[in-house]
Write a structure and sequence with these properties.
The chain is mostly helical. It is about 45% helix and about 0% strand. It has helices at about 5, 30-35, 45-55, 60-75, 85, 90-100, 105-120, 130-140, 155-170, 175-180, 195-200; strands at about 25, 55-60. It has a two-stranded antiparallel sheet.
């Protein structure tokens, strides 16, 4: 099992405290509507109005969004099946930060720590570091201390971000396709296969065979006569 496979089962973890202010971004209503995800079925008018409100605000600045995108690509590198850009993971994390204000401080604080640490270590901010330098930084916060009663804040940050990236990707169309999940699919049930019946010394009663569904006509529309009798 490779690294990408091993982290598919991660779920959105516990969310820690803190509040931060949201700044409003005025956008035309049509632009906001365009941003709302493609699959809107099942949303009540109140839920849609709430979504539009959040989509009309911006929490992370552009530099923070670029760091989230870069971190997401390091956590889940692109492959032939998809990437976090296809899955709009950065947009998902931006939305979640507005929807769950309790994670704002941890995410923003972690992004600040990343830059402070890279500046102290390499003399430049995280986005300007080489990939091997970026990975060296992440290796220091990617693993929790099993003996610690409380994990360091930077470790908590990376755990939260990693779970958000996994959730954002593997709940998207691109991620679901990579998982190979197809959901419920219609099939044809023609009864127990003959070879299985023979193995158990059993067979269907011939008198019952005409009463079973004729799968060759499964797509035909039923028709009734004027008296309500089924004629096809």
């Amino acid at each position: 099992m490779n690294r990408r496979d091993s982290i598919r089962s991660l779920f959105l973890g516990s969310m820690a405290g803190g509040l931060a202010l949201e700044s409003c971004v005025s956008e035309p209503e049509a632009a906001i509507e365009q941003k709302i995800w493609d699959y809107q079925y099942g949303r009540t008018p109140e839920e849609k109005a709430y979504d539009e409100k959040l989509l009309g605000q911006q929490f992370f600045d552009n530099n923070e969004l670029n760091k989230i995108k870069r971190l997401g690509n390091l956590i889940l590198p692109p492959n032939e099946a998809g990437n976090i850009e296809d899955a709009k993971v950065t947009e998902f994390i931006e939305f979640m930060a507005k929807d769950f204000s309790s994670i704002q401080t941890k995410l923003r604080g972690g992004l600040m720590w990343i830059d402070n640490h890279s500046n102290k270590t390499y003399g430049k901010d995280f986005l300007n570091c080489e990939e091997n330098q970026q990975l060296e930084i992440l290796d220091q916060i990617a693993y929790q201390d099993p003996e610690a009663s409380e994990q360091k804040q930077e470790v908590q940050f990376f755990s939260l971000l990693r779970n958000l990236v996994m959730t954002g990707y593997f709940t998207s169309e691109a991620g679901i396709k990579e998982l190979g999940y197809v959901g419920n699919q219609p099939n044809v049930w023609d009864g127990v296969p003959d070879d299985v019946l023979k193995d158990h010394g059993m067979s269907y009663d011939d008198s019952w065979m005409p009463k079973f569904v004729d799968q060759s006509k499964r797509n035909d529309l039923a028709q009734w006569d004027d008296d309500g009798n089924l004629i096809s």
